[in-house]
């Protein structure tokens, strides 16, 4: 399929859309200084997250797992949203249906003032009790080595680990947005992790036009209507109708 390459045409498509769904991944936060998972500077290469981000790893060594998450919380607390985050927040302020589905757990979209954010992989700022199931927010820079719930149970990060299901209510919101949007904008995701990546073919099958922004080609690039090769911090601001 021939790809549209005009930023102006994509901006116009977004400006006219009555309903927009956005899907973001780690690439959107890369320019803020948060390492991506699978890029050359990928976090996985230094820290082997596949050994840390699983229920088994947490059961085996919760202290090590928490050490890694505390390090990431500290790193994220020390960075700022970038022009890509701010562009998406601005796009939302146009008084139409707008859902920002993110695979990121860093909270940078909210810090850029995006409102309708659907965090399909949870949040690094949420803690969940492994005993009573209670969830709470904790934005503190340093946590105890092993955070606990007031019921005495051990807390875990409120994120989705490998081998775990997504929260069904949150996922339903993401699916609804994908199925009902006129345009889906996909930015900074390698689109290899399911079910999140499946939202894009779902939107297409429901009749949406799809715009992709990434520094490299992904498995989606062939199926989208517009594939822009470049950084989200540079391209997303150009897609805002001012
Ligand atoms: P990945 O690390 O897999 O992919 C990051 C994508 O961002 C790549 O396609 C890069 O080419 C692109 N990228 C990097 N810098 C960019 C920039 N400045 N502008 C635009 N694009 C850029 O991250 P995700 O796709 O988010 O899940 O990974 C999906 C999920 O895999 C994560 O949510 C995480 C991980 O397992 C869980 O933790 C459950």
Structure, described:
By secondary structure, the protein is an alpha/beta fold. It folds into two domains: 1-34 and 81-121 and 166-242, Rossmann fold (3-Layer(aba) Sandwich), CATH 3.40.50; 35-78 and 122-159, SIR2/SIRT2 'Small Domain' (2-Layer Sandwich), CATH 3.30.1600.10. It is built from ten helices and nine strands. Strand 2 (97-102), helix 7 and strand 3 form a beta-alpha-beta unit. Helix 8 packs parallel to helix 9. The longest helix is centred in the N-terminal third of the chain and has 16 residues, at 62-77. It starts with 6 loop residues before the first helix and ends in a 7-residue tail after the last helix. The structure holds 2'-O-acetyl adenosine-5-diphosphoribose (OAD). The site of 2'-O-acetyl adenosine-5-diphosphoribose has 25 residues, from helix 2, strand 8 and helix 10.
Describe the protein's topology.
Blueprint: H1 7-16, E1 19-24, H2 27-30, H3 43-47, H4 55-60, H5 62-77, H6 83-92, E2 97-102, H7 108-111, E3 117-119, E4 122-129, E5 135-137, E6 155-159, H8 168-180, E7 183-187, H9 199-205, E8 209-214, E9 226-229, H10 232-235
Parallel strand pairs: 1-2, 1-7, 2-3, 7-8, 8-9
Antiparallel strand pairs: 4-5, 4-6
The structure holds 2'-O-acetyl adenosine-5-diphosphoribose.
């Amino acid at each position: 399929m021939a790809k549209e390459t005009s930023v102006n045409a994509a901006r116009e498509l977004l400006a006219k859309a009555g309903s927009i769904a956005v899907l973001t991944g780690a690439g959107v936060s890369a320019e803020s200084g948060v390492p991506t998972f699978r890029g050359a500077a990928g976090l996985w290469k230094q820290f082997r997250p596949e050994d840390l981000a699983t229920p088994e790893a947490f059961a085996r060594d919760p202290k090590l797992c928490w050490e890694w998450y505390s390090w990431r919380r500290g790193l994220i607390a020390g960075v700022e949203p970038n022009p890509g985050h701010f562009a998406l927040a601005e796009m939302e302020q146009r008084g139409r249906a707008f859902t920002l589905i993110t695979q990121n757990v860093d909270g940078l979209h909210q810090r850029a003032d995006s409102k309708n954010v659907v965090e399909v992989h949870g949040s690094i700022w949420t803690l969940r009790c492994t005993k009573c199931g209670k969830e709470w927010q904790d934005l503190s820079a340093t946590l105890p080595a092993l955070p606990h719930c007031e019921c005495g149970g051990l807390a875990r990060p409120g994120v989705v680990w490998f081998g775990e299901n997504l929260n069904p209510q949150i996922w339903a919101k993401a699916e609804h947005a994908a199925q009902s949007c006129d345009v889906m904008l996909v930015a900074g995701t390698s689109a290899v992790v399911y079910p999140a990546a499946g939202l894009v073919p779902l939107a297409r099958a429901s009749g949406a036009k799809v715009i992709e922004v990434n520094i490299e080609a992904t498995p989606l690039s062939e199926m989208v209507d517009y594939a822009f090769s470049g950084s989200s911090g540079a391209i997303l601001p150009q897609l805002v109708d001012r």
